[in-house]
Design a protein that fits this description.
D-Maltodextrin-Binding Protein, domain 2; globular; binds D-tryptophan
């Protein structure tokens, strides 16, 4: 009996140890990363996040698992950069317009320079970043960059002239905010995630942004009018904590780096198609009126904007950047990528 007990104890111990030491190959190598996003799940930054996640998980054959946190559940819009630097999240989605002073160089794509769509904007931003390698991103790894489609006015009241805009409480951030101020609106800054409530409560009468939110955030229910200005884009970055990046195996880094340009293109195309879909949906479902400015009016509106770029060049130069060169680079890149479309 004693002998049997000894045998059983040894067998159990061996099984326990084997279980302890053995992990399936996938488990042994599995890397888990938390990805924070600030707006709700149906919006384009979260759609991009899910696409990136699926591609990373497939291309690393399950070696990496990405846990996604939409809707500000892990980090809010303005906490994104510092939250990723400090490791509260491993990866985060950053809208640079919410901190225009901090991301001066990359926010230059928000100047009124005529970026025609999200695909062009995303490729321009990706190439600008590669060329300038801005210091503002020294403490993170940048995994992907993209922009929205150009901004238009979504409002409760019809806007067809500059006097219509005078004093209207409209929400915009960064470069787009400068434009609204120039046109005489009462610009109010807040992240997109705070906008649905502000609109419902009447704190704002509309917003200036890309039009996919008419559908994704149901702004078509509140804004009966859209004035087509097709003015500026908002730049975004997917950023990763530097220690977590440095600790990744080389093959995983290669997969993520390989997705950088692909994501600029994918997101650009997704956004441009989705804007068209949102416009059709808004007209059909909510009878939204789309106000097109005639060419003389649109020229007059655009003419008011040229001092914005000059002012930005002066500001950037005062901070030690070659502002004129950055603007010229963006113009050249718009020509280059605008032709690819
Ligand atoms: N236009 C910026 C960025 C933006 C456009 N669409 C979305 C959707 C969700 C979050 C941000 C954005 C803005 O208005 O904030």
């Amino acid at each position: 009996m004693k002998r049997f007990q000894k045998f059983a104890t040894t067998a159990i111990m061996t099984a326990f140890l084997a279980g302890f030491l053995y992990q399936s190959p996938v488990e042994a190598k599995s890397i888990s990363l938390n990805y924070a996003n600030f707006p709700p799940a149906p919006t384009f930054p979260c759609v991009q996040m899910e696409d990136w996640k699926a591609k990373v998980e497939t291309q690393t054959q399950g070696k990496v698992r990405i846990n996604t946190f939409p809707g500000g559940t892990l980090l809010g819009a303005r906490d994104m950069m510092d939250g990723v630097i400090s490791g509260q999240a491993d990866i985060g989605c950053l809208c640079m317009a919410y901190q225009p002073g901090r991301f001066l160089v990359t926010n230059a794509v928000s100047l009124p320079l005529g970026i025609p769509d999200s695909k062009t904007g995303s490729l321009v931003l990706t190439d600008l970043f590669k060329k300038e390698n801005p210091k503002a991103f020294n403490k993170v790894k940048v995994l992907a960059l993209f922009t929205t489609a150009p901004a238009n006015i979504m409002s409760r009241k019809r806007v067809a002239t500059l006097p219509d805009l005078k004093g209207m409480d409209l929400r915009a951030s960064g470069g787009a905010a400068e434009i609204l101020k120039t046109w005489g609106a009462n610009q109010i800054g807040m992240p997109m995630s705070a906008t649905p409530e502000a609109l419902q409560k009447g704190v704002i009468q509309g917003l200036f942004s890309s039009l996919e939110v008419m559908k994704d955030l149901k702004f078509a229910e509140e804004c009966a009018y859209v004035t087509l200005t097709n003015t500026v884009v908002y730049p975004f970055a997917v950023i990763m904590n530097l220690d977590r990046w440095n600790a990744l195996p080389e093959d995983v880094k290669t997969v993520m780096e390989g997705l950088s340009r692909e994501q600029a293109l994918w997101t650009g195309n997704y956004m441009d198609d989705h804007v068209k879909e949102a416009v059709t949906w808004s007209k059909e479902t909510h009878k939204v009126e789309f106000v097109a400015l005639d060419s003389a009016t649109s020229q007059a509106w655009n003419q008011t904007l040229s001092p914005i770029t000059d002012k930005w060049i002066k500001k950037a130069s005062a901070k030690g950047f070659d502002g004129k060169n950055i603007v010229d680079t963006i113009k050249t890149l718009i020509q280059k990528h605008g032709k690819d479309s």
